[in-house]
């Protein structure tokens, strides 16, 4: 992975970038854009980030990369959603998870080289490559009903969108994000409804689940209790998907009643893409380690992630970005210092977003990409 930091001082924007680029392979870009001047009013912060985004995509190193996905992490979604511009063909996600750097908004971008893009129903984007199509959905939600009813509606709608592509959750969905309003109270209801839906779709302990993050997050409408983003791939063979367990350090999520994979690796002819779910300070009995100790929990989370990456043949040098969720704003100073000391080059953002168990002070997710030869499969 190649890392770089690009600063646009006239905009007060810093872009921390990773790009996977190998000869005769399609490049993949991830970038975290943030303000270096947090005193700007909200409108100016968004304007500066949008100008910075345009410049990043015009840089000679990234000019051949098409934007396929972006997520805005904002401090006050009800008052800031109006600053989003009319969208292009990329999928656009917006969630209230306040950046702890002090700014009102941080932007995560993903771009892929040599693709054709098309919009889909349900705020979706279909990204076509010669052998596979990548399907990004964002902002799936329902405004009426209980958290269980909303979760069912969201998954029903997503399943319908996939079915129209001759795809389904079981065979094609690689990753979901479930943002739950008031996670301490509502998470259990989301888990129950997801499990019921998964059983109907043949996603069980005997088959497999889906890599996921379930975390505090809010939609612009206060009635929305569950908001989902999702990523699927069309054209994969079953043998290309590997579900990561990390059994020396983590237990099966089903042992404490939830239904997601610790991580998923997708093998292509030229590389491996790895999607690590939201990971916390847990052991292989499912117990929380280091209660009320942010320093030890942070180290354990990253140890758990390293174990999962190793299972897929990767390590932290292959990580494209990190999303870091904290329960307590007071822990930001330590976590920021720790991450800069240990992983200064990796694009990252630290967000206020309580994890599903109160004892977990921190949760981290990531994506990794590594060159691998798998000649039995088509290249990415």
Based on the model shown, name its key terms.
380 residues, 60s Ribosomal Protein L30, Chain: A, 23% helix, deaminase activity, 18 strands, single chain, six-stranded mixed beta sheet, globular
Using the 3D structure, state the CATH architecture of the largest domain: 2-Layer Sandwich
* Helix-strand pattern: EEEHEHEEEEEHHEHEEEEEHEHEE
Helix content: 10-25%
CATH topology of the largest domain: 60s Ribosomal Protein L30, Chain: A
Q: Mean pLDDT, nearest integer? A: 96
What is the distance, rounded to the nearest whole angstrom, between the alpha carbons of the first and last residues?
Answer: 16 Å
What spatial form do the alpha-carbon principal axes imply?
globular
Sheet with most strands: 6 strands, mixed
Protein name: Enamine deaminase RidA, YjgF/YER057c/UK114 family
GO cellular component, one term: cytosol
GO molecular function: deaminase activity
InterPro entries: RutC-like_sf (IPR035959), YjgF/YER057c/UK114 (IPR006175)
Break the fold down into its secondary structure elements and pairings.
Layout: E1 2-8, E2 13-20, E3 28-35, H1 42-58, E4 65-74, H2 77-80, E5 91-96, E6 105-113, E7 116-120, E8 124-128, E9 133-141, H3 147-163, H4 169-172, E10 173-180, H5 183-200, E11 211-216, E12 226-234, E13 241-244, E14 263-267, E15 271-279, H6 294-311, E16 319-326, H7 332-342, E17 348-352, E18 362-371
Helix pairs in contact: 3-5
Protein name: Enamine deaminase RidA, YjgF/YER057c/UK114 family
InterPro entries: RutC-like_sf, YjgF/YER057c/UK114
GO molecular function: deaminase activity
